[in-house]
């Protein structure tokens, strides 16, 4: 079993899709929200929220993986845990919002507010200076909380002046792939996953991760 240390079901869907190509079936991947619902795993109670106070994406990914794995192990449930931290680094903002991407406007996970703040910060910045990069860091911990796999993926693009498309999540409606002239919000999910930072990070460790998950099942 592989537990994804997130309650973001859209992120879970992306991970399941990406791991399927390595023959890891969706029924072997869960996110921590199952511990809060009426499933068998809920007997352990809610998994504590991880304080993401690392200074890098890699540090936060490792915190999510290790702390969640150790909590589950203490409750008698052993599994590999994948922590992933990702965000947007905008050139004109000296790398902001960076590790604060999910709470850029103050409230964690408020995509609309985060996007609005980003557009305000970039008001008046010309197209040629609106370059940006998505970054995804992945860390996988064993049941004891030891990190066994890490990877990082990046994807370059630019920030458009108004949201386009309804797909994806986070800053996807503002992040345009220059060569395609489409934002992640406009691209089909399969195309986004093929190009995305998260897809690149997971593909880098996919075979090793698949081997661990299947061997432990």
Automatic annotation (TrEMBL):
Give the cofactor binding note: Binds 1 Mg(2+) ion per subunit.
Q: Which domain of life is it from?
A: Bacteria
Which positions does UniProt annotate for Mg(2+) binding? 85
Active site positions, chain numbering: 85 (proton acceptor)
The cofactors required by this protein are: Mg(2+)
Specify whether Magnesium is a keyword of the entry. Answer: yes
Picking any one GO molecular function of the record gives: ITP diphosphatase activity
Q: Which keywords appear in this protein's UniProt record, sorted alphabetically?
A: Hydrolase, Magnesium, Metal-binding, Nucleotide metabolism, Nucleotide-binding
Q: Does the keyword Nucleotide-binding apply?
A: yes
Q: What is its EC number?
A: 3.6.1.66
Q: Which reaction does it catalyse?
A: XTP + H2O = XMP + diphosphate + H(+); dITP + H2O = dIMP + diphosphate + H(+); ITP + H2O = IMP + diphosphate + H(+)
Q: Which residues bind substrate?
A: 6-11, 86, 169-172, 192, 197-198
Q: Which InterPro entries match?
A: dITP/XTP_pyrophosphatase, ITPase-like_fam, RdgB/HAM1
Major enzyme class: hydrolase
Please give the family membership noted in the entry.
Answer: Belongs to the HAM1 NTPase family.
Function in brief: Pyrophosphatase that catalyzes the hydrolysis of nucleoside triphosphates to their monophosphate derivatives, with a high preference for the non-canonical purine nucleotides XTP (xanthosine triphosphate), dITP (deoxyinosine triphosphate) and ITP. Seems to function as a house-cleaning enzyme that removes non-canonical purine nucleotides from the nucleotide pool, thus preventing their incorporation into DNA/RNA and avoiding chromosomal lesions.
Q: How the protein assembles, per its UniProt entry?
A: Homodimer.
What protein name is recorded for this chain? Answer: dITP/XTP pyrophosphatase
Taxonomic lineage of the native organism: Bacteria, Pseudomonadati, Planctomycetota, Planctomycetia, Planctomycetales
